[in-house]
Amino acid sequence: MDTFWTYFEVLAPSIGVGLVFWFAIRSIFRADRYERTTEAQVREELSEQPVEQEEPTERDGK
Length: 62
Hints:
By secondary structure, the chain is mostly helical. The protein contains 1 helix and no strands.
């Protein structure tokens, strides 16, 4: 049983750092995916709206 705890003490920090790295990268990818989805929805909503074009106005003095 002593060898188990020796190996555990050696491997635990590496596994802990690996898990922290994995959670950080996972949250970055999820945020990016959510941002891309939201941006696509906004672009779709904007493309559905009719484009209002203003008529050119003449400047005073010309």
